[in-house]
Amino acid sequence: MPEIKVLMADDEPDILNIMAKKVKEAGYDVVTARDGQDAWNKICSENPDVIILDLTMPVFNGFYVLKKLRETPPSKKWQPVIIVSARSELGDIQKGFTLEADHYLTKPCNMDDVLKGIRLMVNLIPQRKSEAELDQDKP
């Protein structure tokens, strides 16, 4: 299987650095973003396989990035989004899923849970391939 690229977006540098280090140690290619605008730009330029998205970020918040991703996807492939946020109110979680987040973890969270979430999304990628991607995979 080709290397899986994970975009991690969080405005808290310490959290971002720790999470990125652990995800990289687990064998994933990691791209980081420190605000919502940077996250959107990297979604467009880096074409990540999995997106880890905080909700409370400057410039664009995580909800905005998720909404934009689902309404105007820059890629033909399915890009699963895992929200990792301190926002644990039921309304926030429901809004995340309404905007088509694929998984939601509340901070503080265990890195094992983040890694399990990434593995789950990676395992679902082949099942979510579009017709164009399936045609592209044919010899």
Overview features:
five-stranded parallel β-sheet, Rossmann fold, 6 helices, single chain, 139 residues, globular, 5 strands, alpha/beta
Explain how this protein is built:
By secondary structure, the protein is an alpha/beta fold. The protein has one domain (5-130): Response regulator (Rossmann fold), CATH 3.40.50. It has 6 helices and 5 strands; from the N terminus they run βαβαβαβαβαα. The chain has helices at residues 13-25, 36-46, 62-71, 90-98, 111-124, 131-137; strands at residues 5-9, 29-33, 50-53, 81-85, 103-106. The chain has a 5-stranded parallel sheet with strand order 2-1-3-4-5, with helices on both faces. Helix 2 (36-46) packs parallel to helix 3. The longest helix has 14 residues, at 111-124. The mean pLDDT is 87.
Q: Topology of this structure?
A:
Elements (H helix, E strand, L loop, with lengths): L4 E5 L3 H13 L3 E5 L2 H11 L3 E4 L8 H10 L9 E5 L4 H9 L4 E4 L4 H14 L6 H7 L2
Parallel strand pairs: 1-2, 1-3, 3-4, 4-5
Helix pairs in contact: 2-3
Short summary of the structure?
The protein is α/β, with parallel strands linked by helices and 139 residues long.
Estimated structural class: alpha/beta
Assign an overall shape.
Answer: globular
Radius of gyration: 14 Å
Given the structure, what is the number of helices? 6
Strand order of the largest sheet: 2-1-3-4-5
The average pLDDT is 87
Distance between the termini: 16 Å
| Parts with pLDDT < 50 across at least 5 consecutive residues | none
For the sheet with most strands, the description reads: 5 strands, parallel
Query: How many strand units?
Result: 5
Number of domains as seen in the coordinates: 1
